[in-house]
Specification:
about 475 residues; alpha/beta; Aspartate Aminotransferase, domain 2; Aspartate Aminotransferase, domain 1; Ornithine Decarboxylase, Chain A, domain 4; 3 domains; eight-stranded mixed β-sheet; 16 helices; about 20% strand; binds pyridoxal-5'-phosphate
C-alpha cells in the first residue's frame, strides 16, 4: 500500500524505545549535542548552494573557512569536508594517489572501500597481513617487521595504505610505520575512520595526521557528534600533489551535498577542538566506572590494550562462558543496549565522547547489562572455537590474477573443500567487521577454508554472496569468458 512508509515507521518506533547507544553515530541519538536550536531546526538547515552559502565543490567562503579551521586543528596543509562517509574519502585518496598498474602495499584487514578503490584504480595490491592478537582473537595491526620485509621484497613500491586504528581501537606501531615508509620515499595513506577524535587529547592515541601520514581519512560521524556520512579528509604530503584527490572528490561526491551534514562537521570540529583537561578527566572517570562495573560480571572479561596502545572509547568485552559474542549482542539488544559490533568471542561498545558534566545513562546501562548476565549460569564452559576471526598467516600476498585477467575468466561455484588452491572469484566478507577474508584474484588456501567453515558454524554473517552459507565459493575457471 502506497500510504505505508515502512522505513520511516520502523525508525520512528525504534527511537521511541529509548535504547541506549554504544554504537555509531557519535552524537548518540543527539545526546552529545547541547545545541537545542540545531537539533530542533534540522530540516530548515537543509538548504542548497544559495548565494551566501558557498559551494563544497569550489569553496571560497564559509565552507572554505570551516575547512581551514579543521586543517588548523589537525595541523594539515588542507582539510576537506566529506558528505559520503570515509567510503568516498578512501576512494578519492587512493584513486588520486596511485596510478593504473602500479603496485601498492595494502593492509589485509582493510575496509571494503579500500578494496573497492584498489579495484577501481586498477592498481596491483600487495596484501600485508596484520598480526593476530591471540588474547583478543582478532587481527590487529601491521608490524614494523612486516613492512620491512615487504619493502625488501618489493623495493619499487611507493604507496602504503594502512588502517589505524582497527575496529577494536588498536593502533600498534603507526608512527614507526610512517617513519619507515617515508624513509623509503613511500607515500602513506591512512584510513583513520575510527580516530577523528584522537586530536582532542593525549588520553587518545596519536592521530595519523600528527604522526606524519600524507593523506588521512576520518569518519567524524563515528566518534564525534557529526551526522552519519559526515567525514574528513586531511592532506599533508610533501611527496604528492592534492589536485588529483580534489578532482576525484568532486567526481565522486554528490553535486547536492547535504548542508546539515556539512554543518554537523563544523560543529564536530569545534566540539573536539574545545575538548579540555576537565573534559578529559570527566571522560576518564566515566570510562573507568563503566569498565569497573563490567569487570564485576563473571561471564565476561574486559579486554585491555597491550601497553595501553588503543582508543579508550572502544571497550571490548570477551565471553568467558559458552555464549558467542553474537549471542551476547542479541541478549543485550533485548534489554535495549545496542553495541557496535560482535564477533565469535567479543562484543564492542563505543563509549560516548562525553564532556565535563554531560549526562549519559551509564548507570541504567550497567543495570540492564547486569540483568542479562544475572540470568545466565556462570558455567565456565569456555567457547572452544578459537581463532575464528580472519587471518592468522604472516604472509605477504600478491594476487594471482589481475583485475584485467579476471575479467577474461568465467566463474563457477564449488564446495569449500574443492575450492582449495583455486582462485577466488568473489569477495567474501564476514560482517561485522566488514573485512574481506578473500578477494577476487586471490589464491584460496586451506587456512581460508578452515576459517570459513568455523565462521559459518558460529553463525557469522557474510556480506554479498550468500553461497558461503551453502558452503560454496566462486572460483575462476581456466576458460576465458570472452575473446578479444
Ligand atoms: C575502517 C573503516 N574504514 C572505512 C569505513 C567507511 O566509513 P563510512 O561509513 O564513513 O563510509 C568504515 C566503516 O565502518 C571502517 O570501519
Amino acid at each position: 500500500m502506497q500510504t505505508n512508509t515502512p522505513l520511516y515507521t520502523r525508525l520512528s518506533k525504534f527511537q521511541e524505545r529509548k535504547n541506549i547507544s554504544f554504537h555509531v553515530p557519535g552524537h548518540k541519538n543527539g545526546l552529545l549535542l547541547s545545541l537545542k536550536e540545531w537539533k530542533e531546526n534540522l530540516l530548515s538547515y537543509d538548504l542548497t548552494e544559495l548565494t551566501e552559502l558557498d559551494d563544497l565543490h569550489a569553496p571560497t567562503d564559509i565552507i572554505l573557512h570551516a575547512e581551514e579551521l579543521l586543517a588548523e586543528l589537525y595541523g594539515a596543509k588542507r582539510s576537506y569536508f566529506l558528505v559520503n562517509g570515509s567510503t568516498v574519502g578512501n576512494l578519492a585518496m587512493i584513486l588520486g594517489t596511485a596510478y593504473e598498474g602500479q603496485q601498492v602495499f595494502v593492509q589485509r584487514n582493510s575496509h571494503k572501500s579500500i578494496m573497492n578503490a584498489i579495484k577501481l584504480s586498477k592498481v596491483k595490491p600487495i596484501l600485508l597481513n596484520p598480526q593476530y592478537d591471540m588474547e583478543w582473537e582478532v587481527p590487529s595491526t601491521i608490524s614494523v617487521d612486516m613492512l620491512k620485509r615487504a619493502i625488501k621484497l618489493y623495493p619499487d613500491v611507493k604507496v602504503l595504505i594502512l588502517t589505524s586504528p582497527n575496529y577494536y581501537g588498536m593502533v600498534g606501531e603507526l608512527a614507526k610505520l610512517i617513519q619507515l615508509a617515508h624513509h623509503n620515499k613511500i607515500v602513506v595513506l591512512v584510513d583513520e575512520a575510527h580516530g577523528a577524535h584522537f586530536i582532542g587529547s593525549n588520553y587518545f592515541p596519536i592521530s595519523a595526521v600528527e604522526a606524519g601520514a600524507d593523506v588521512v581519512v576520518q569518519s567524524a560521524h563515528k566518534t564525534l557528534p557529526a551526522l552519519t556520512m559526515g567525514s574528513y579528509l586531511h592532506f599533508n604530503s610533501n611527496l604528492i600533489e592534492k589536485e588529483r584527490i580534489e578532482g576525484y572528490l568532486s567526481m565522486l561526491q554528490s553535486s547536492s551535498p547535504s548542508y546539515p551534514i556539512m554543518a554537523s562537521l563544523d560543529i564536530a570540529r569545534s566540539y573536539i577542538a574545545t575538548f579540555n583537561r576537565k573534559d578529559e578527566e570527566y571522560l576518564r572517570m566515566q570510562i573507568f566506572e563503566f569498565r569497573k562495573e563490567l569487570n564485576k560480571i563473571k561471564q565476561i572479561k574486559v579486554l585491555e590494550y597491550k601497553e595501553g596502545a588503543g582508543d579508550p572509547l572502544k571497550i571490548t568485552i570477551q565471553s568467558t562462558c559458552s555464549l558467542s559474542g553474537f549471542s551476547l549482542q542479541k541478549m543485550l539488544e533485548r534489554q535495549g543496549i545496542y553495541t557496535e559490533l560482535a564477533d565469535a568471542k567479543n562484543l564492542l561498545f563505543v563509549f560516548p565522547l562525553l564532556k565535563s558534566g554531560m549526562y549519559y545513562p551509564i548507570e541504567e546501562a550497567i543495570k540492564r547489562i547486569k540483568r542479562v548476565f544475572e540470568k545466565l549460569p556462570n558455567d565456565n564452559h569456555v567457547l572452544e572455537d578459537k581463532g575464528v576471526s580472519i587471518n592468522i598467516d604472516t604472509n605477504i600476498v600478491e594476487l594471482k590474477l589481475s583485475e584485467g585477467e579476471q575479467s577474461l575468466r568465467k566463474k563457477k561455484y564449488v564446495l569449500f573443500d574443492e575450492a582449495e588452491n583455486g582462485i577466488s572469484a568473489e569477495t567474501v566478507i564476514p560482517y561485522p567487521p566488514g573485512i574481506p577474508l578473500l578477494i577476487p584474484g586471490e589464491e584460496i588456501t586451506s587456512n581460508h577454508i578452515e576459517q570459513l567453515k568455523k565462521l559459518v558454524q558460529v553463525g557469522a554473517n557474510f556480506q554479498g554472496d550468500s553461497s558461503v552459507y551453502k558452503r560454496m565459493l566462486a572460483i575462476y575457471t581456466d576458460k576465458e569468458s570472452r575473446r578479444s
